[in-house]
Amino acid sequence: MEQHKYLKYFNVLSLFDTKRTRDIFQVNPTIPVQREEAAQIHVDVHDYNAAALHYHEFTEINECKVFKDNEHMSWINIDGIRKADIENICSCYNIHPLIIEDILSVGQRPKMDEMDNILFCLLNMLYFNERTGDVETEQISIVLGKDFVISFQEDADRDVFSSIREKLKIANSKLRQSGADYLCYALLDMIVDHYFLVMEKLGERIEQLEEKIIRSSNTRSLAEINDLRKELIVLKRNVSPVREIINGFMRSDSVLLQERTTKYFKDVYDHILQATEFTENYRDMMMNLQDLYLSNVNLRMNEVMKVMAIVTCLLAPATVIGGVFGMNFNIIPLTHHQWGFYIAVGSMLLIPVVMVIVFKKRGWF
User: Fold this and answer.
1) Residues 95-107: what's their mean pLDDT?
2) Residue ranges covered by each domain of the chain
3) Count of C-beta atoms within a 10 Å radius of residue 251
C-alpha cells in the first residue's frame, strides 16, 4: 500500500496541475455531462398585471400549469434543475426540445436562440467567493414567451433578483405596467449589473497585489498573479458572449419584443460593452504586474550581484599582496624587513578604503 503513494509522481503533468485549472480549461462540449439533479426544487411565481399581483410558492412543478394563458403576466422562477420537472414544464409551455437540452446542459457557452415563437437565452450569474477569492458561476436559463417568463436557476441559496421582486410589489412600477419582454430585460440587466460587483472585488485584489509586489516580491506573489489570471479568464469567458445575447435581442424581429423595449436592451448592451472593456483592462494590468514582478526580481538580483562584485574588488588587493609575499623566493622586497609584515597588512587595509572612497564619489553604490 505504501508504494502506491509515490506513483502519482511519475505523472509529470500532475506536478504542474491544479484543480482550479482543470475546472476552467477541461471542458469538452462534445462529451455529454451528467448533471447532478437537485434533491428538491423551489418554484416561486409572480402572476400580475397593472392592477394586481399574486405571489405563489410551490414545490411541485405541475402547479405552474394553471398560469398559462390566464391573461396575466407570469414570472415563473424555478430553483433546482431536475430533468423530469424541466421536461414537464417545457412541454406545457410548448418549448422546443433543443431548448430543453440547453437548459439541462452543464458548462454551456452563453447563447441566445429563437424557436417556435419562443426567445431563449442562457448565461451565467457570477459571484465572488470572499473566502477562496474565486469567481463562481451559476447557469441561468431564461425563456420568454407570450405573457410569460420562465427562469431556471441551479442554486436556490444565491439570487440577485430580489430587487426585481420588490419592484413588482409596487403597483405603478414600470415592471407592472409593461409586458413580459420588459421583465426579461430587467432580469438580464440585473445579471449584467452584478458583473460589476464581481469586477470590483477583483479590482481590489489586483490593487492589493500590486502594492504587495512593490513592497516585496517573492514566489508567493507570482502564485497569486497566476491565480488572479485564472479568475480573469473565468470572468472574460462569461462576460464577453453576453454582448452577442443582448445584440440578438436588439436585432430580433420577434413579435414578443415591443419596439419601445429595444432601447432598454441598448442600455444593457452599453453596460456589457463597458464590462468587456474592464476585463481587457484587468488582463493588461495582470500582464503589467507580471512584468513588474520580473523587474523587481531582476533588480534584486542586480543589487546582490553588485554587492558581490564590490566585495570581490575590495578583496582583490589583499589577495594580490598576499600572493606576492607568499611566493617561494629568497629575495622579496620587505620580506626580511622588521616592518614588512605591518606594511603588507596596512596596504591590504588602506587600498580597499581608498577604493571605497573612489567608488562612492563615482556613485557606483
Assistant:
1) 90
2) 32-296, 306-361
3) 9
Reply yes or no on whether the pLDDT at 93 is more than 80. Answer: yes
Q: What is the largest CA-CA distance in the chain?
A: 120
Please state, for a pLDDT cut of 70, what percent of the chain lies above it: 90
Q: Which three cell numbers stand for residue 48?
A: 400580475
**CA atoms within 13 Å, Cβ hemisphere of 70:** 15
The Cα 39–Cα 222 span in angstroms is 41
> pLDDT class for 14, splitting at 50, 70, 90?
very low
Average pLDDT on 58-71 reads 85
Residue 240, amino acid: S
Cell 577604493 locates to 355
The burial class, CB within 10 Å (0-12 / 13-18 / 19+), for 284 is exposed
Q: Are 209 and 228 in contact (CB under 8 A)?
A: yes
Which CATH number, 3.40.50.1460, 3.30.460.20, 3.40.250.10, 3.40.50.1220, labels domain 32-296?
Answer: 3.30.460.20
Does the global pTM surpass 0.90? Answer: no
CA 150/CA 65 separation, integer angstroms: 12
CB pairs under 8 A, 24+ apart, for 197-202?
Answer: 197/128, 198/126, 198/127, 198/128, 198/135, 198/235, 199/235, 199/275, 199/278, 199/279, 199/282, 201/128, 201/130, 202/128, 202/135, 202/228, 202/231, 202/232, 202/235, 202/282
What separation in angstroms does the CA of 68 have from each of 47, 52, 92, 179, 204?
Answer: 10, 17, 8, 15, 46
Residue 90 near residue 115, CB atoms below 8 Å = no
Taking 60 as the threshold, does the pLDDT of residue 12 lie above it?
A: no
- Phi, psi dihedral angles at 114 (to 5 degrees): -135, 115
CB < 8 Å & 24+ apart, contacts of 355-361: 355/313, 355/314, 355/317, 356/314, 359/310
Instruction: Evaluate if residue 317 carries a pLDDT over 80.
Output: yes
